[in-house]
Design brief:
5-stranded mixed sheet, 10 helices, Beta-barrel_TonB_sf, cell outer membrane, mainly beta, Immunoglobulin-like, transport, siderophore uptake transmembrane transporter activity
Length: 998
């Protein structure tokens, strides 16, 4: 027995020793197998030209590099792994790593790749070759290479038919967007915005809440076939935004940041001291008055005698500064993917007191719970801060250069031109307390079920979104700002909204037949409430906004409303052999804004067909054509065009004295119309997509026509009814246009490439009918047969000169008066001589982007233009106000000596209210960006995944005949509009970098 135990022990020892040796050998083998080897090579096309920027990835890992300007790359890999080489427009190539460490890789052009790109459409995605509607993807370079605060600034001028207008450069102010012109006269014309499948529009938020660095793609839906799926919300076009999601692999940390300065693009300089004195002298002479002092006011004499002047525009402005810092981390496993980002933006405006700060956080998560269930979230928080008292640029242009800026004690002089009290110090706003803040707390989630077996292809998706949008405003104006009683105001509002969408999709291929069916049931609700509190009569300015109850006179108000929308939708897409395409869509919307005397529901159908001509047999031998597709669509969309509660009759409260007692009563406010219905737009679209010469030339051309009926307009009522007007479905408009997009690869050299992108859009709308009687509405400047927005005024032909006979045309005119055309020939200038001078919307817009690549350098130059619009020029309507204000030196005035034919005399009183209609066309160097991508061999030494540095300039120069701050700017005159938006266009210069860690 003992011998057997001993033998067993020996065998065990020998076995363990052998196992140890084998493990050692295995470890050696594993070490040899896992040894990292250096792989290098060059990426070329079929013509032996290098391909810079190609992606080289070690399959199944996060190791990725890009080829340099000469197509060279270097990466580490293991024996047995594979390299995956990809580049846009070329077929993907996979190479197995063996003993070879040097590769010369030729990528074959993929002529159909761009057609197989997936684009986001309403409630899903689709291959580009299958798209039958007008869907345009914003170029990725516009989204990733421009330092902008709002994504609309990236789209500006880059998409045909999308007109982005920056009427004011106030920090944090969102540009306005118009897709394919204006269909409605009074309703909102802005597009519907959807972020990650959940609406942003109608939730209280705006695109200012979306960090541009988080955006992966932007699609614009333009025709009825593309937009009808959103029903009433799609009547003005749709912008779909998809944010970045996580990918499988090790975490990737990215940082992007830039810093820059801002200045006014053009300064409308006021007159200098000497010019101001001369203007006053000329004014006194032209009005026949005796001049007793060199300046209008005694308060100006001290500075005049001392020879000191103040540049008020310089005092009210400064060099603006802008900085942005964005950090993101993304990664995950095949079953759990995440993307987390944080962003901080800080912008100090060029006009003192203006600023904008945004703090944004985002978390996107996708989880494959099982093989058939996927859930995910898209959460973000955006905190916007617009605080700050503001300088008044309008008043800064009016101040006398001899005005007194400060009192002896260092405070601002309230009346710089004492005793003149028409103008106060433009810097008084800086002494006020101003609070303006918003927060967007947005939580979206989804769950998607994929059915197996015989139901393969069937998916159910639940989208749910909730938004909480609180807003706070507050102000206090005290003694230092010329309010001797002190005035405080506090405003708080909140918007709560939710969206629930049930989406059922089914995709099936049967031989050459492809079916894709989508069905939807959704519900949206928004609740809004606000409260306002105010007070005047504070004993001092110490507490101000922090103790409104200390005011002697108290005011308060509150308001709330609710909006709801229920929808059902069905869409069927059919394709035969990737040649013949058909899309049918119908959506039914029910809106709470409509009245009880009619249905609250509207049905919006559309149909579209597509023909992939390139896939026909007769095109196989036509080698120079790579893509040719014809698209036709027709459909109907609706526009609510009315706010909540406008269909019901309401009263408002009014406080009046009665028997010596303040009594609250009610007065008529809104006369409801319970029969109101949708504005309806019928749209026809034809488009041709093309690609030529191996897609060296590609693009599309489209034409469309919209006819809108049932416009919601206010019909005037006899005042005896107690109401001024009532809303009715009356009126018709027509809107048509032509769009062209052209992309060319001009040079494809070994070390140099040059690409060009051109967009062009022409649009023409007109009023077909208003009130059913064929008559125009002169009061609102709405004319049948003319565009919706026009300038209707007198036709200026010059200035009356000394010795000219005015009796036969304008008997009341004097030398220096404006000369107008007597269009009706009655020998006098009356209101009947007014005519349409032009339209306020551009007749056509365009943009051209030239991109140059030389080795690791990239240069992009974008030029934008808008032509054919006319605007009244507020910069020319500066009333001299009886010689009491300064005026811009550039504008000038008539004298008997200069005999100006464009400007009137200082004594001229604009009794006709002429608006100085001017051509507002312009061409602008919108942005120029120079970037450098560091070579991968250097990045390897720095242990970085990527590094790009860049310098960018925006709004560098404007070519225009406009006289004033800027033709795009909406500038308010004194006594009208909101002076806080008198903030002209700014030019920006920034430097920045994008870096990724690995």
């Amino acid at each position: 027995m003992k011998r057997k135990l001993l033998d067993t022990s020996k065998c065990a020892v020998i076995f363990l020793f052998a196992l140890f040796l084998s493990l050692g050998k295995s470890n050696d083998a594993i070490a040899q197998t896992n040894a990292q080897i250096s792989i290098s090579g060059k990426i070329k096309d079929s013509q032996n030209n290098p391909i810079p920027g190609a992606s080289i990835t070690v399959k199944g890992t996060t190791r990725i590099v890009a080829s340099d300007g000469n197509g060279n790359f270097k990466i580490t890999a293991q024996n047995g792994e594979s390299l995956v080489i990809t580049f846009v427009g070329y077929e993907t190539q996979t190479i197995l790593i063996g003993n070879q460490t040097q590769f010369n890789i030729i990528l074959a052009e993929d002529k159909g790749k761009s057609l197989n790109d997936v684009v986001v459409i309403g409630y899903g995605t689709q291959k580009r070759s299958d798209v039958t509607g007008s869907v345009v993807s914003v170029p990725k370079a516009r989204l990733s290479q421009l330092p902008v605060t709002n994504v609309l600034q990236s789209i500006e001028g880059a998409v045909a038919g999308v007109n982005i207008t920056t009427t004011s450069s106030v920090p944090g102010k969102e540009p306005s967007a118009l897709i394919r012109g204006q269909n409605s006269i009074t309703a909102s014309a802005g597009p519907y915005v959807v972020v990650d499948g959940v609406p942003l529009t109608k939730t209280g938020g705006s695109l200012n809440d979306i960090n541009p660095n988080d955006i992966a793609s932007v699609e614009v839906l333009k025709d009825a076939s593309a937009t009808a799926i959103y029903g009433t919300n799609g009547s003005n076009g749709v912008i779909l935004i998809t944010t970045k999601r996580g990918t499988s692999g090790k975490p990737v940390i990215r940082y992007g940041g830039y810093y820059g300065i801002e200045n006014l693009t053009n300064i409308l300089e006021p007159r200098t001291g000497a010019e101001y004195v001369q203007k006053y002298a000329d004014y006194m002479k032209q009005t026949g008055q005796t001049q007793t002092k060199p300046v209008p006011n005694n308060g100006e004499l001290a500075a005049y005698n001392a020879g000191t002047t103040t540049d008020w525009v310089a005092e009210a402005t400064q060099t603006g500064k802008i900085q942005d810092h964005n950090v993101s981390i993304s990664g995950g496993s095949p079953d759990v993917k995440y993307f987390i980002s944080g962003d901080y933006l800080d912008q100090k405006g060029v006009v003192k007191g203006y600023q904008f700060k945004r703090l944004g956080l985002r978390s996107n998560l996708d989880v494959n719970v099982t093989s058939f269930l996927t859930v995910g979230t898209s959460l973000f928080l955006a905190s916007n801060n617009y605080d700050g008292g503001r300088a008044n640029l309008l008043l800064a242009t009016a101040m006398s250069p001899y005005g007194k800026e400060y009192n002896a004690n260092g405070t601002y002089a309230i009346y710089p031109m004492d005793p003149e009290q028409l103008y106060v110090n433009p810097l008084l706003g800086l002494t006020t307390t101003q609070i303006s803040r918003t927060t967007n707390i947005n939580g979206n989630g989804y769950a998607e079920i994929k059915f197996p077996g015989v139901l393969t292809g069937l998916k159910y998706r639940l989208n749910a979104g909730y938004t909480y949008f609180p807003k706070r405003e507050g102000s206090y104006t005290g003694r230092l700002a010329n309010d001797m009683l002190g005035t405080a105001r506090s405003f708080n509002a909140s918007t709560n909204s939710y969206t629930i969408e049930n989406i059922l999709t089914y995709a099936k291929d049967i031989k050459k037949h492809h079916f894709d069916i989508t069905a939807l049931y959704s519900a949206q609700e928004r609740k809004y409430n606000e409260t306002t509190a105010g007070a005047t009569g504070f004993i001092n300015d110490e507490l101000g906004l922090d103790n409104i109850g200390a005011g002697a006179t108290q005011t308060s108000a509150s308001y709330r409303d609710r909006y709801g929308l229920n929808s059902q939708m069905a869409r069927v897409f059919y394709a035969y052999d990737s040649r013949y395409l058909l899309t049918l869509t119908a959506r039914r919307d029910g809106s709470s804004v409509f009245g009880s005397s009619t249905t609250k529901y509207g049905v919006f159908p559309s149909a579209a067909i597509g023909w992939n001509i390139i896939n026909e047999n007769f095109m196989k031998n036509v080698s120079f054509i790579n893509n040719l597709k014809l698209r036709l669509s027709y459909g109907k969309t609706g526009n609510e065009a009315v706010s909540v509660y406008r269909t019901i009759t309401t009263e408002s409260s009014s406080r009046s004295p009665f028997n010596g007692i303040s009594t609250i009563g009610v007065i008529a406010a809104n006369l409801g119309n319970t029969s109101l219905q949708w504005e309806t737009t019928k749209t026809a679209n034809i488009g041709l997509d093309f690609g030529l010469f191996n897609n060296r030339i590609s693009g599309s051309i489209e034409a469309y026509q919209n006819k809108t009926s049932g416009l919601l307009l206010s019909r005037s009522l006899p005042i005896i009814t107690g109401y001024v007007n009532v809303l009715e479905n009356i009126g018709k408009t027509s809107n048509k246009g032509l769009e062209l997009t052209l992309n060319t690869q001009n040079i494809k050299g070994e070390g140099f490439r040059w690409e060009t992108s051109v967009v062009f859009a022409a649009n023409k709308n007109k009023i077909v009918d208003l009130y059913g009687d064929g008559k125009s509405d002169l009061g609102n400047r709405w004319f049948i047969g003319s565009p919706i927005g026009v300038v209707y005024d007198y036709q200026m032909t010059g200035v009356w000169q000394t010795g000219e006979d005015v009796s036969k045309q304008d008997p009341t005119a004097k030398p220096g008066s404006l000369k107008f055309a007597d269009l009706n020939g009655d020998g006098k200038i009356t209101a009947d001589d007014r005519t349409i001078l032009g339209q306020t919307a551009p007749k056509w817009t365009g943009g051209i982007t030239n991109t140059f690549h030389y080795k690791n350098f990239n240069l992009s130059v974008f030029i934008q233009t808008a032509q054919g619009m006319t605007k009244n020029n507020p910069d020319l309507t500066y009333g001299d106000e009886t010689g009491r204000r300064n005026t811009p030196a550039e504008i000038g005035y008539w004298t008997p000596e200069n005999q100006s034919q464009t400007r009137p005399a200082l004594s001229y009183n604009n009794t006709l209210g002429y608006g100085y209609a001017s051509d507002a066309s312009y061409t602008r160097i919108k942005d120029v960006t120079l970037s450098y991508v560091f070579a991968q061999n250097l990045l390897d030494k720095l242990h970085l995944g990527g590094l790009t540095v860049y310098a960018s300039g925006r709004n560098l120069h404007t070519f225009t005949n406009w006289i004033g701050w800027d033709p795009e700017n909406n500038y308010s005159t004194r006594g009208s509009g909101d002076w806080t938006n008198n903030y002209p266009l700014t030019k920006t210069f920034v430097v920045g970098l994008n870096v990724s860690l690995r």
